[in-house]
## 1
Amino acid sequence: MHKKRSGRLTRRGFLRLSGGALAVLAGTGPFGLLSRPGYAQKTAARIVIVGAGAAGIALSARLRRALDGARITVIDRRETHLYQPGLTLVASGVWKPRQVESRTAAHLPRGVEWVRDMVAEYDPEANRVITAGGQRIEYDFLLVASGLQVNYSAIEGMSADLIGRHGIACVYDNPRHAAASWQMMSRFMEQGGVGLFTRPPGAIKCAGAPLKVAMLTEYRLREAGTRDRAELHYLPAGAGLFSQPDINQFLKEHLPARGFTIGWNHPLVAIDPGKKEATFRTPEGLRTMGYDFIHVVPPMSAPQAVVDSPLAWQDGSFGGWLEVDQHTLQHRRYPNVFGVGDVVGTPIGKTAASVKAQAPVAAANLVDVLADREPSRRYNGYTSCPLITEVGRAILVEFDYDLKMVPSFSFIDPTEQHWVPWVLKERMLQAAYNAMLRGRV
Amino acid sequence: MAFSIWGILAVLLEAVRPYFPALLVVLLIEVALLGWLLTKRELWRRQAARKVTVACGVLVFFLALAFIPAFTKAGFDDLRGLLDYGVLLLASLGCGVAAGILLYLPIQAMLVLRQA
């Protein structure tokens, strides 16, 4: 006996529809995980990606999907991948170090060759790189995503192994430093004294981090009930606190309101850990200050192999960083070379959020060049920083090359402290970061 | 920064990825319960199950409202204005609805067992 047909969806019809929908989803959007899409460009190009940090992995994922037949090689000797935006949370005791560590192998897409070595020399005239282990790797296209180096030795008396001793903290580089910084901060919370927070001249990774560490230390002191025992100094190298003018103005009012004394034009030049003294080169001459806790932020540069190579800007304010067009991310002199992430010499953009915006541009432009087209995509300098002001509060700052605010969520005022940006930072950004590594956002 | 629906879904997928094993266990329990309950359809107590489920959902909503800030290592004094309270309210509503959906079958199963 046949059932009477009605307008209602039958079970078979539902299954058929669901199957169709799943098939569509499987081939598009973030669900297109299983196969290379039909629009992938066929090529036998050799593509070398230097670095398996956020930028290198995101690029490898995107190019793996966009190209069919390309030989993609990633060069990096680090077995552990670091979620660097979480380091301030480790340094302030909010996260454990293991929360920012994962295996590099778990992130690299299948079909990508991983050379566990570091590039020691770039030879763009011969289209090859030479690794520290002596391998010569030739390429048709090179993507430099090697990150940057933290130059501890640029401060007299400073070295990385001092972090976690003599009241010295430094949030940068790895979770070991961040955890050691939390130990120093904890001791300072108990004992109080003089706290110094430095910010070097020049471009640095996550320029909000020195501010976050300063504000989180002040918060932790209040939480511990020892705020009145501490004297806090924020000591930037220049005459500003933040490149974006609205946020700069906000901080100029916010830090003094929380009891910080701001010492403008105070680049740290030397430290004496034994005496617990720091020396700054001020316009009035050298100034030495005693401290009980100091957050040292050393100057940063591109890795030495880039600095020493023809790929670096040879002069100007970006001297030593990778010379790319700030919009196309294509090298200005070697068209088969692109750069993404901390290593590039552009006005702003040394954050994971910048990588999120840069990686699709560089990958798409490389595909354009490979197909003999002009680079079609442009990076507008987008960068973002959930600037934590306290545990539980943050402001969400997003801006571009013009230092114009470009808020993703128009209903969030970037100069008002809120809980929601904190939740984004503490709960959601790592998910967004992982989606970026997979080339999905 | 422009957002796409695929981008948002990709981020949500990554957010729940660490909980996949636990979600799979919950899903298997739900499917097993559904299978068992389908063999006892005559014993279903739909209205009673709905009432208990709604009560549980409301309870979870209020618990979420009270504890979500602490879950994010924040306190109520960190919440400021419509934005923060609106998001807290929506998140709590989501927790309540999700709890209701997940609890319906176990509650129905308990009611069926009591009758059997």
## 2
Amino acid sequence: MRMLKKALLSPPHPWRASSHPPAHRLLRNRFPVTRFPRGFVLALMFSFICLAGIFSYSSAHATLSAPADLQVIDTPNDGGGSLTVVWAPSPLDGSESQYQVLIGEPGAGDPASLKVIAEFPANTRYVKDAKGGWWTRAADPTWHHYVIRSGKGVDIKDGTAYPVTVAMRKGDERAAGPLLQGTPYANWFNWNQLNNLILALGFGALVFYTISHAKRNNIFLRRIPGLDAVDEAIGRATELGKPILYLTGAHDMSDPSTIAAAVILGRVAKRTASYETELMVPHRDPITMAVCQEITKQAYLEAGKPDLFKEDSNFFITSDQFSYTAAVDGIMLRKKPAANFFMGSYFAESLLLTETGASTGAIQIAGTDSDHQLPFFVTTCDYTLIGEELYAASAYLSKEPIQIGTLRGQDIGKAVVLSVILIGTLLATVGVATGGSWPQLFLDLVKDLK
Amino acid sequence: MIFLRRRLPLLITMITGLLFAGQYYVPHPSSELLLTSATKWLQIIGGFALVLGVSSLFHQHAVKIRRQEAGWGYSLVLYGGMLVTIVAGAMAWGKESLDGTMTGFGWVYSFMMVPLQGTMFAILAFFIASAAYRSFRARSREAAVLLVAAVIVMMGRVPLGEYLLPLSGDVSQWILNVLNASVRRAILIGVSLGAIALSFKIIFGVERSYLGGGKE
């Protein structure tokens, strides 16, 4: 090397000063080579050109190499009726080339009989882009995948083997992978939702722990003005000698908000029984009516006033939204109840009910988890139980350790959710800033995956 | 007796509660079939329960007519309306049109029910105006903030408002997307946790007051 450098940097030879020598002479002078016959040199050059041609031809075909490590599997965690194809990425994946997914009728062995059901650029559809957690990935995140479902002239049936392959296409050329068989079937557990199950069970365990903790310890409860006002409203109705109107919302007993409303009704009915105040509970659902009749009857029994219980204090009006609203508005205007309770779930009728109630001068207490109706309740009612306060009302009114313990569990749950949101936001930001994929390991754990 | 009134319902609640909570995690078609069947069962039970509801309605209004309470005339209208609708429905086999011709039942629905429902819904606009007037009076600092936010959002949602206040569109969108959406999500998180906790309590029999019958 040192010699080569020296040769290149050495002062020009005397003949160079006189004229500019041809390049081949210059090279030959600097790098002396053995002299070969001219025919041999021409043959060597011809061979080199031929080899270069062959090399370039084979490299052109390398871009169209068949998809490697092709696998056809049943789509995991689904209800059947679909297959998933995965294959390794090609070093020449790009927007100019496409992948084609081909499927044939069951039993078909001729690749020519397969039909193309999907074609997409070769730099798309990666395993990492699939909806699902990292713990259920069928292949490396950098691999390609495609889910074959019924449609586009293909009917995928469970338990039947289908011939499938994937081809790479660029222009008019195409390289197909091996023909593989895949059999779809229905799965019994969606492992993508494992995180959901663990979180739900964890929260349930937390609630039961806090209930047992509340039985042994005193837990402080923050006052909620809306619930403090329940006694005030019932007392006012008693003083005025007017009835109390209680609505349980638009949904049936399968909705947690209706159950919460029915539970609160029990507490309210107990107070009205004690104060000997009339209670009216118009319903939109007959089953809710039957349940609330039982709850009211029990409340009157517990208050020691079973003789004051009226079977028709709970009555059915109609399931129709606006007919019900018109009927309840009529009751408000004719009977002029001193207190109106709007608990449960509501829709457009909320303002029609509460504004009419406000016009009669009644004290109004609402409690709903219908976030879209909250502004109307806040505007027109004296007190509003917002969202979770509806579920907490039962605990506040009863003061039972079981109910209070549940509240503590909910509060801890909220703290956990807020912490997860904070940590997740930070990790997602770090992931975007650094381009790293490791934050996804955590983010997937708290994602609602289907 | 205590078994039939308390323990059996609690047992049924626990088994069905756990079964359908588990159903959410099972993608197999049998699981879907189970849910569909249960939904149909609920609809059938709801149909039978409607008899309970209608009998309650009849009883309620019969008492009003008998006692001639205030507004008992409306109860007569209810009886008349119900009778006419049932007869019209029976004559039309429950269909609103037969061979392209509107039936009496269809006429009752199209020219009585729909306009009446529309009227009730239309009243909402006036109620919103009167409720807004009462709420948006700037009596306190909070009410003033509410008033300003409401005016910006209202201006930003109509073309004329955005023409008069060009920034109102972007600001109102920011109020809705950032302030409003974040508060809504916070409420929804609380609601969801409350609903899950209540569901756990009902499934495992911790919350029993919805059954009536008090403590054992």
